[in-house]
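User: I'll paste a sequence; please echo it back and then give the predicted structure.

Assistant: Echoing your sequence first, then the prediction.
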Amino acid sequence: MRFIKMQGAGNDYVYVDCISQPPPANAAKLSQTISDRHFGVGADGLILICPSERADVRMRMYNADGSESEMCGNGIRCVAKFAYDHGLSTNNPLRIETGRGILTLQLEIRLKKVERVTVDMGEPILQADLIPTTLTGPSVVDHAVPVEPWFAGCGLDPRMTCVSMGNPHAVFYCRDVAKVPLETVGPKIEHAALFPRRVNVHFVQIKSPDEVTMRTWERGSGITLACGTGACAVAVAGVLTGRTGRQITAHLPGGDLHLHWSEEDNHVHMSGPAVEVFAGEWPDNRG
């Protein structure tokens, strides 16, 4: 099975073209095996590029634990680069079918290769039951949560804002994201009973109204260098809580993403890099 390793702001996935070759027999199992950073290729998960009757291509995304997710903001930028650079589509803008619906991507081309991509991520979902969370109310904005001893030293603001970008996110603010014990608190919040489909967790440090630093625990993958849908959720949460403006730069461990929550159409637009790392061949497609 041929594959290409790609990354967007350090959020790395193994990409498989299921248009020119058969899809994996067991994608969930393959994702677990191929994502292993010691015994596999090493990645945050597996992304399949499939035919679509409604768009240029279809994207299916699996986390490192084998669970399937609706969307990946960094991953979809790389799908666009793969599709254009490898001749699956010459369209620009490009349309990609996802578990969130069909998204439109504007490609920045340099020397006939995609270098950067802007994604129209659509409207954020703010209704509590659609995120989903069991918390009551029309939305979850600055919702007070119990302060646990794990947060000592990071200056946590004990309020949580929840946003869905097709997948669920919980956003917290603190004085120093470097001091958040992410490996401890991340899995506890991900699996909290408040979130029936689990949740992606983000801790954010405000630099200015148009600049933040964030760290992420991704549902099904753990600590990652970046999360595109998470950065979109952070942009929305910043506006909802009055902490940031509608256009921000988010600094993530793997690089920067630029976000704009438009007042005109209520859509979130995300811009960032898409990079091909290397190509290879996996022994089979079963995992």
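The mean pLDDT is 96. The domain at 2-121+272-281 is CATH 3.10.310.10 (Diaminopimelate Epimerase; Chain A, domain 1).
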